[in-house]
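Researcher: Please predict.
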Amino acid sequence: MSGVLRLGTRGSRLALWQAEWVQAALARQGVAAELVVVKTRGDAEVDRPLRELEGKGFFTKEIEDELLGGRIDAAVHSLKDLPTRLPDGLALGAVPARADPAEALVTREAGVAGLAALPGGAKVGTSSLRRVAQIRYLRPDLEIVALRGNVPTRVQKVAEGRDGLAAALLAAAGLERLELGGRIAARLDPLVVMPAPGQGALGLEVRSDDRPTRAALAPLEDAESARHVAAERSLLAALGGGCQAPVAAYVGTRDSGLGTRLFGRVTAPDGSVQITASAEIDARDPAAAGVAVAGLLAAQGASRLLAR
C-alpha cells in the first residue's frame, strides 16, 4: 500500500509495546506505520473495578470510533479486551502469533510456588471478575483486593505491599513483553486458573472494506493462533458473555491421546460453583468447538451462574 499506515493504540506501556511490535513487523514487510494514541474510557476511569462500569468495550470503543471515522487505518488491541461482536463496518484483520496465555502470580515475598502456597487470609490483587471467581473457588480463605492500573503499577503495588497486598494475578504475556518476567513467582496451570478468551494474543482491527490495509496486515497473521482464538471467542459469544464475564477458555492438548481441545469454564462470582467442559477443535471450523463447549456448559447451568 502507498503512504503511511496509521495504527491506533491505547497509551499504556503495554499497549505501546504491542503497537510498536506491530509497527516493527510491518516495517520488515516494507510497510511504514505511525502510532496514534487514543485515550479510552477504561484508561480514564482507573479508580473503579471494570466490572462496576456499565457497557462493553472499555478499552476499545474510542479506538473503534477513530477507525470508523477514518482517522486511523488499523487498531492494535489486546484481543481479550475486544468484544466478540464488532461494530458494523469493522472486522478482525489479523491475529499475530500468540504469546503464553497463562496466568502469572506476582508476590511480595520470594519463594511462593503458587496460590496454594499463600498463607491463609493473604490479600491478592485483581479487578478481573474471572480471576476473582476462580481464586474464591480455589482459596475462599484469601482476601481479594481491587487492583487496577497499568502492568508496572500493579507490580509495584505488590512489591511495596500497598494495601497489604501479598500477591496479584496478571497475564504472563504482559509481564514478559514489558521485561517483568523476573517478577513471576509462579506460572499457573491454565487448567487450574484458566485464562480469558484471547489472552496473550493481539487483534488487529480494520474497516471491513479496506482491502489495502487488510493486505498489508495479512503477513502478520498466524494461522494456528487465529484458529485457537476463534474457538475461544466463539465460546464467549455463544454464552453471551462480555469481556468482563467470569468465562475462561484455554486451547491445549492436555488429554492423553486426544487432539487439540478447547477447554471452557464458568465460575460463580462468589466461587461457590465452577463448571468446566471441553471439545476437540476441527481446524476447518474452530468456532464450532466454541459453540459445542458453550452447549456443554449451558447444560450444567452456566446461564444461571452468569446471571448472578
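Model: The chain has a mean pLDDT of 93.
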